[in-house]
Amino acid sequence: MQSPRGKWTVPLTDNDAQDPHDPQGRLKCGVSTEALLVVSICLWADHYTAGSVAFPPWAEGNPATLDQAGAADRTRRIRDAMTVPK
């Protein structure tokens, strides 16, 4: 996930997963910096899936880094869109 030269400027911390299909689901988000690149990163895991999403500043044409709450919200939407409940 992160190269040995990178640093967590905001360590991975728990966020509310708000997973309607798995109340035990976990979501963690943080901000990583390597050289001049600052990237918001979120990881999720539940009983069926696991994934990670990186939000580099240029992803939406915005030079600002996505804050942790915004990254968590977008990660939930990505997770929900790609997860098919059994």
Explain briefly what this protein structure is.
17% of the residues lie in helices and 38% in strands.
Structural class based on helices, strands and sheet pairing: alpha+beta
Could you estimate the helical fraction of the residues in percent?
10-25%
> Average pLDDT, to the nearest integer?
84
Pick out the low-confidence regions.
none
Tell me the β content: 35-45%
Helix/strand order = EEEEH
Spatial strand order of the main sheet: 1-2-3-4
Overall 3D geometry? Answer: elongated
What's the topology here?
Blueprint: E1 7-15, E2 26-34, E3 37-45, E4 50-55, H1 68-82
Antiparallel strand pairs: 1-2, 2-3, 3-4
Characteristics:
86 residues; four-stranded antiparallel β-sheet; elongated
Can you put this structure into words, describing what you see?
The chain is of the alpha+beta class. The chain is about 15% helix and about 40% strand. The chain contains 1 helix and 4 strands; from the N terminus they run E-E-E-E-H. The chain has one helix at about 70-80; strands at about 5-15, 25-35, 35-45, 50-55. It has a 4-stranded antiparallel β-sheet, covered by helices on one side. A hairpin with a 2-residue loop joins strand 2 and strand 3. It is elongated. The mean pLDDT is about 85.
